[in-house]
Amino acid sequence: MEYSGTGVGRGIAIGPVAWMSPPMPEPSAAPSLVTAERELERAQDAAAEVARELRRRAGTVDGSGREVLEAQALMLEDPAVDSSVREHLARGVTAERAVFDAFAGYRALLMGMGGYLAERAADLADLSQRVIAVLTHSSPPGVPDPGHPFVLVANDLAPADTATLDLEQVLAVVTLEGGPTSHTAILAREKSLVAIVGADASGLVEGATVIVDAERGRILTDPTAEDVAAATARQEALVAEAAAPITAGRLADGTPMPLLANLGSPDGAAEAVRLGAEGVGLFRTEFLFLDAEAAPTVEAQRDAYERLLAAFPGRKVVVRVLDAGADKPLAFLGGAHEENPALGLRGIRALRRAEPVLRDQLDALAGAAARSSAKVEVMAPMIATVEEADWFAAVARESGLPVAGVMIEVPAAALLARRMLGVVDFASIGTNDLTQYTMAADRLLGGVAELQDPWHPAVLRLVREVGEAGAALGKPVGICGEAAADPLLAVVLVGLGATSLSMSPSALAGVRAQLARVTAAQAREIAAAALDADDAATARRAARAAADAFLG
Ligand code: PEP
Ligand code: MG
Fold this sequence. Notes:
By secondary structure, this protein is α/β, with parallel strands linked by helices. The protein has three domains: about 1-20 and about 140-225, Glucose Oxidase, domain 1 (3-Layer(bba) Sandwich); about 35-135, PtsI, HPr-binding domain (Enzyme I, Chain A, domain 2, Orthogonal Bundle), CATH 1.10.274.10; about 255-550, Phosphoenolpyruvate-binding domains (TIM Barrel, Alpha-Beta Barrel), CATH 3.20.20. It has 22 helices and 16 strands. The strands form two sheets. It has an eight-stranded mixed sheet. An eight-stranded parallel barrel has the order 9-10-11-12-13-14-15-16, surrounded by six helices. The longest helix has 23 residues, at about 35-60. The radius of gyration is 24 Å and the shape is globular. Bound molecules: phosphoenolpyruvate (PEP) and magnesium ion (MG). Phosphoenolpyruvate (PEP) binds near residues 284 and 480. Phosphoenolpyruvate binds near residues 282, 323, 480 and 481.
């Protein structure tokens, strides 16, 4: 039997299933036998205890794990949560019920907002369960401990659990809910954990051995001896790949192909350097300010950019100006309700309406660049017209940032790539959004995940358009969407004219190894095989067959 879902990364694991303990029953809505004041005291004490425990756990982990736990502790201390609990207690219910109802209300609110915020809903459900567990003196639902390594299967994993998983015991994680941008996926990618999210795997049986293949997004039950042997061989190949000496990205014929990192915070820079990133191809500045109520000051931004640049002396660092909107709303940019936010005032459109915010950001970046030897380039998201590209390049240059480029994420920009590249210094293709807009398939919606595939020949043709424009004008064309992290697709993108690839640092080793096995001419032939297909699955198979023919 085979189950499928969205794989995170390329890992593969074999082991017995252990289900996450089931959620606690809903607290009774019967009236409390004590006063509302006493119940409020109980609720506040329990929330404070959970916040203390989250902070204690935050002190034992680093990176996003720590941030997630600290953010959860802060959520518990939000005065809005306290006043909502008070309102529910006024109905005469118990502390357990009031906490349950207060958090359920917030959860519904976030789910209704969709996108990034909806995916934060799991955080609230987890907090509610933890507080109720303290109130009822029961153990909180959590990661099981069967006493041997296991494949953790959960409906949705709470970020607090993902952040502190014992990686010696947890061989892989499978969740029934969650999309590729859920916290589980983000943390799993960062920890190089084998993971499949949004899997239709409710039939998995406790204790049964399974193979979790993230690269193929597949969970195989009752594996045969051959399945296990093949999976073990893949595991060994991945270990060898990760242990290979780190060299600059290069094709088999010596053609340089710089391999860069996608980062959302300066905190990830050291790890990116350790994994061999030759610079930064995409710094997502909006990730720094998702929680900010007001526009960040020039000074605060300059500090963040200086910290980033310090990790890459003499190297290329491409910073993207704030890409607000859709699944990444920023309180201080845009904000009016839109029916279709992915098609609304996002990216450069929002920045043009808030030009002082853009100018402050460019000033901060120019200030940081002046104090660093990093080669800073700046680019704009969601460019749709040549006029927007021209306007952005002019503003960037006025701000003292001479190298300005555009992201190609909208099909219109890809189709007019020659004109676009005529007015800017480089292009960087954001395959996540380019696929979303080419296929008219929301990148956050599990129901259309099959259409959200950058292997689709329609997407590849647009990439070719940009690659050819770059070659004709002698301007660089980078790739910074998730597509660059898929080793075989990376070869195709190079064959279509990409001159650098940027990806999550954990993907660098796999892409580096694959590129070193093909020449530029072979990459072009592999790309031609993919372009000729009718759909994504056929394109992938055709590229695989062409690559196998070269590599034997
Ligand atoms: C993209 O759209 O491919 C991209 C790199 O930008 P983001 O994922 O941040 O939208
Ligand atoms: Mg994008």
